[in-house]
From TrEMBL:
Keywords, alphabetical: Methyltransferase, S-adenosyl-L-methionine, Transferase
Catalytic center residues: 427
Gene Ontology MF, one: rRNA (uridine-C5-)-methyltransferase activity
SUPFAM superfamilies: Nucleic acid-binding proteins (SSF50249), S-adenosyl-L-methionine-dependent methyltransferases (SSF53335)
Biological process (GO), any one: rRNA base methylation
Name the record gives this protein: 23S rRNA (Uracil(1939)-C(5))-methyltransferase RlmD
Keyword flag Transferase: yes
NCBIfam families: rumA
Gene symbol of the encoding locus: rlmD
Its EC number(s): 2.1.1.190
Stored Pfam families: tRNA_U5-meth_tr (PF05958)
Residues annotated to bind S-adenosyl-L-methionine: 301, 330, 351, 400
Length: 469
């Protein structure tokens, strides 16, 4: 029998908190939590529930009785529809407050950790236009507004280049201006879209998996270099060259113009051949005199300015004296490894993406750093006792895993190796807390430093320093 999910209305609900997955929080008359999407803490609203569970409701505000003084005017015309910057209507100082609270709550509630006095979150100087990488999707069936659907007019312009509507894999919002990446990002996206329409190139149809244009990636760098990559599905050489040549002529500042022909079901490019159409197949990012080569598949922190702050804090937490062996787990293109290398005897980096490790090695050579070694493979298979026997017992481990956190075998291996200090950098304090709980019999949390890499969103980075008990 299907469970009835009857919608309910609660009146005059005060929104009291924000955090988990970017949702705001109110209380139902029976004390149950209501997770809301379109409010700011301090608003008083009527709520229509959309989901009912044993311990909580989900809902949306339908009537606003009063607006919170934490509110600010969102800058983006797509706010509320686009899945991107969902906290734009909350003042930045309040965003920071809730991010800090989220980190501390996760460490205490999930990790059951005793925390030292935490340092205030480090806010980002740039609160808009801070991203160095954006990916936009093409679609021939764009998201339409209610007025468009209800109007009698026939809608002929269904092509879109933009972002997925939250929860809808086949609907793309056509973006006019995005506030996340500096220009010429918007100009390139609009030109690509308009030129394609004018010249009859077909946009991807996600349901039937056809169409020429599939996605557009733009990477900017603090060096001024610019990478643009178009992902095609159907392969039409004439049209492909037409649109790429137009980009090349219209934006001579593009230093790396790439494409990929991907006819798989999903649009990840990691198993695809990237072809260089003009310029180089990579760009360079620079930090503290170090140069980092970035190709289309490389991971690089998306907020470059704040990444510098993150790395400086990581290095400060490691507090190296010069005679230590450091392991940099999940090293990516070896950025942290190279960043701390000057202060260490030797750094060993491990990462699963072969291209990233190739870049890490090339970067180290270019930066004339000869006390780093890089190894490729799945962490739990590489970071083993045998590996330690060959490469030495680390004095310090720096670890910066992806959102899912560390595999439990990796945590066990860290405990076995038992370095004096562990610096754990994470973009997901919930999985970080889960991992730290497994380590708490052997390690004490000495410092906690949240860093905001992603203003206008609920995401937050966190650095924890652990010392052996
Ligand atoms: C958050 S990024 C950190 C990268 C790097 N520390 C930096 O700041 O640029 C996580 C990295 O872990 C890598 N990774 C993900 N799963 C992995 C695994 N199972 N084994 C090894 N590396 C993995 C990803 O490819 C990515 O480069």
């Amino acid at each position: 029998m299907r469970r009835k999910n009857k919608r309910q209305v609660f009146e005059n609900v005060e929104v009291v908190d924000a955090g988990a997955k970017g949702k705001t929080i109110g209380k139902a008359p029976d004390g149950r939590v209501i997770f809301l999407t379109n409010t700011v803490p301090g608003d008083v609203v009527d709520v229509q529930t959309t989901k009912k569970r044993k311990a909580y409701f989900e809902g949306v505000a339908t009537t606003f009785h009063s607006y919170s003084d934490k509110r600010v005017e969102p800058q983006c015309q797509h706010f509320g529809v686009c899945g991107g910057c969902k906290w734009q209507d909350m003042g930045y100082e309040h965003q920071l407050f809730y991010k800090q609270q989220e980190v501390e709550n996760n460490l205490r509630r999930i990790g059951h950790l005793e925390l030292p006095e935490t340092t205030p979150i480090l806010g980002s100087e740039e609160q808009y236009f801070y991203r160095n990488k954006m990916e936009f999707s093409f679609s021939d069936s764009r998201w339409m507004t209610l007025e468009e659907i209800q109007s009698d007019k026939e809608i002929t312009d269904r092509d879109a280049l933009g972002f997925h509507i939250p929860g809808m894999w086949d609907k793309i919002l056509d973006i006019k201006k995005c506030h996340l990446q500096q220009d010429p990002s918007n100009a390139i996206r609009l030109e690509t879209r308009d030129f394609a329409i004018k010249n009859g190139l077909t946009f991807f149809n996600p349901r039937h998996q056809h169409g020429e244009l599939r996605s557009l990636m733009i990477r900017t760098a603090s060096t001024g270099e610019l990478m643009v990559m178009i992902q095609f599905c159907d392969d039409n050489k004439t049209n492909r060259e037409l649109i790429l040549n137009n980009l090349k002529e219209t934006f001579p500042e593009i230093t790396s113009l790439l494409y990929v022909i991907n006819q798989k079901q999903n649009d990840t490019i990691y198993d695809q051949e990237i072809i260089c159409f003009s310029g180089r197949d990579h760009i360079f990012e620079e930090m503290e005199g170090l140069k980092f080569k970035i190709n289309a598949k490389s991971f690089y922190q998306t907020n470059s300015a704040q990444a510098y702050e993150l790395y400086k804090l990581t290095r400060e937490f490691a507090d190296l004296k010069g005679d230590e062996l450091v392991y940099d787990l999940y090293t990516g293109t070896g950025t942290i490894a190279q960043f701390v290398a000057k202060k260490a005897k030797k750094v060993v980096g491990i990462e699963s993406v072969p291209e990233a490790i190739e870049d890490a090695k090339a970067n180290a050579e270019r930066n004339e750093i000869d006390n780093v070694d890089f190894f490729v493979g799945d962490m739990k298979n590489v970071f083993t006792q045998e590996f330690i026997n060959t490469n030495g017992i680390p004095d310090i481990i720096i670890t910066d895993p992806p959102r899912v956190g560390m595999h439990k075998d990796v945590v066990q291996q860290i405990l076995k190796v038992a370095p004096e200090k562990v610096v754990y950098v994470s973009c997901n304090s919930a999985t970080q807390a889960r991992d730290l709980e497994l380590m708490k019999e052997a390690y004490k949390v000495v410092k906690v430093q949240p860093v905001d890499m992603f203003p206008q969103t609920h995401h937050v980075e966190n650095i924890v320093l652990l010392k052996k008990l």
